[in-house]
């Protein structure tokens, strides 16, 4: 047991050194892939980690996310990288967890509690016959007081400028003293580099050292995917019961409480179906066929899309409320189910209207991240409605919805990360410049990977006189656009020449190759 603990702590130390070597004053690129390979290798070598199929799947997913950072090097790829890493760590150390939300929370909890995990691991180390447990017990006693003193010092500094001045002076003197000590023994090291190493050490420890408390895992195991009928005693009340009792008074205490809820549900779904039928009829007749933009076209589409998205979320929430418990087993619930299914179908038609609105927006104003986001969100709503249908039809729990939708969302996140969105947006807009009222100020503000495409199509980058998009509101001369583009190209060349191989990524390499930049 001690040998295992010693090897794990040695891996954390090597991980901290690797971290400061890979990321000190470097951009996030191939260094993230190298760091991830190290974390994956240590995790799968660790004998305390069960090498289940689920862990291998999430390990491969994280490796794919790391590779996509090197290939696409976008903000989305970085976000996917961090999410996949936390999910891999969460499932790796608590493999009985079933939802990505709990795994994400478990990984965060593990990162926050890394000092306690490290002290627990270090206290098991002994040098010869000398145990280090008393020393780390003393550190454990001092750790929480230090955190409390630091917190209150920050609060007092915010409240008093004089206190803040003295606190800053003390911290500066301590920093200078430590920096001088380091320079005396190690001339090439700096205090900032030591702090960077410490951060890497803490981060690696949080990713590799398992949190010893399994209460979160045990709590999630109580979640069931299949609904069962609950026969409550008179004194047993759930949170839903207490909320409903606030609005219905003594109705719930009667024997006909379930029937009352059924009748209220029938009236609610019938009224909502009629209301949504009117809206869908208006959309089908005015939007689906023969639509011609007029007036504040952009504003109407933007406002309408936001309202419809919110209404779809509320629709699913209403369905989940009524089919949360014993109403699923009520012998007369067929009518209620039919009304709920009808409302789901109508909400699906509503999603089609959202897609058509967004399609018109793209047709007349081109692609942007927000418009692509609407398409993605509409896709998620379709998936959500499909899983809600399964929940009602198969009498599943809300826990089932979280589990299934979480896995689907993560798979879609990885899928969407495969696409280089900035390049797609620029290519689409410039290829349709004659038919689309593009926003050149938006296009020239996208990431540096689009610079070669913009440089090739300088003649197409000019302000549109009829552009009423949300970004381009003020006319600026075309020369400003070319000057901005030239400045960005010059900045890229200067930056790329100064970077080491640790910051290498495919997009920067292609851009540098186009402009003839060599390191």
UniProtKB/TrEMBL annotation:
Domain of life according to the entry: Bacteria
Pfam families the UniProt entry points to: DUF4153
TM regions (residue ranges): 7-24, 30-50, 62-91, 97-118, 138-159, 194-212, 262-291, 303-323, 335-356, 372-392, 404-421
Keywords carried by this UniProt record: Membrane, Transmembrane, Transmembrane helix
Protein's name according to its UniProt entry: Uncharacterized protein
